[in-house]
Write a structure and sequence with these properties.
With 257 residues, the protein is an all-alpha fold. The protein has helices at residues 3-22, 33-50, 53-57, 59-67, 74-91, 106-116, 121-169, 178-230, 234-242. It is elongated. The relative contact order is 0.15.
Length: 257
């Protein structure tokens, strides 16, 4: 579970509620179930109109990606690729065949399998980058879904406000009810803004970050696979792959190295 996501959501709600109390207002004035329904469920219904059924119903899997941290051991991946490169230079590409069973990542294993099978380098590159493009396309579905939802939710907040104003205008003869009715009408706009800017758009940004991280790992794997196929020096390969990692995350080399 991503503590930053949970903590951010809880912290954001806490600050909103705290600001209400700090202003000396009654929290009950800001609670309206009808407004919440039209913002959340109304905007979600619009997403069914804008997206294929499978994507709209399956939005939970995208939410799960945002709520959970996928940890990539980039240093371990590089170490493994360098070891494969060293074995390939010493014993030939076919020597990697038995070691492929120890590779956990399916993408990396399939790429190395292509190398062992003697596939043309251009074909390997085309296959691997084709897979990456498909991964990115699937991720963009989730990113676009929550991005679109974040744009629609405030609009439904305005719709709820307009509905409330219509009811208020219909009872203008009761001047004592104008203020309270106006407050209730504006709550829907508030809900739309909170749902969009505290939940939906941040989830979109989190998914973009998850996508960027996975594509970076896939790029490291591709460069390692292609270098193994071309017989690059393992030390040169190691230095090349570590350029994809921030200096702060790179292992410290001893002064004798």
């Amino acid at each position: 579970m991503d503590i930053a996501t949970i903590g951010g959501l809880i912290g954001g709600l806490f600050l909103v509620i705290a600001s209400i109390f700090a202003a000396g207002n009654d929290i009950g004035l800001y609670i309206d179930i009808a407004s919440l329904i039209i913002v959340v469920f109304g905007s979600f219904a619009a997403m069914f109109v804008a997206n294929p059924m499978q994507r709209a119903v399956g939005f939970v899997k995208f939410l799960n990606i945002a709520m959970n941290v996928q940890v990539y051991n980039k240093e371990g991946i590089i170490t493994q690729l360098v070891a494969f490169a060293d074995n390939a230079r010493k014993e030939g590409l076919l020597s990697l065949d038995d070691a492929l069973n120890d590779v956990d990542d399916e993408f990396l294993r399939s790429g190395l399998r292509l190398v062992v099978d003697g596939t043309d380098p251009d074909v390997i590159k085309k296959i691997l980058y084709g897979n990456v493009e498909q991964i990115d396309a699937r991720h963009q579905d989730g990113i676009g879904f929550f991005g679109g939802w974040g744009k629609i939710a405030p609009a439904f907040g305005m719709i709820g406000t307009l509905l409330g104003l219509i009811g208020m205008m219909a009872n203008l003869e009761d001047t004592s009810s104008i203020g309270p009715n106006m407050a209730v009408a504006l709550i829907t706009t508030l809900y739309g803004s909170i749902v969009a800017n505290l939940v939906l758009i941040p989830i979109q940004m989190k998914l973009e970050d998850r996508n960027k991280e996975e594509l970076l790992v896939k790029e490291i794997m591709i460069q390692g696979i292609l270098s193994i196929q071309s017989g690059d020096n393992p030390r040169i390969l190691e230095d090349k792959l570590y350029t994809y990692i921030p200096p702060s995350e790179r292992p410290q080399k001893s002064s004798g190295e």
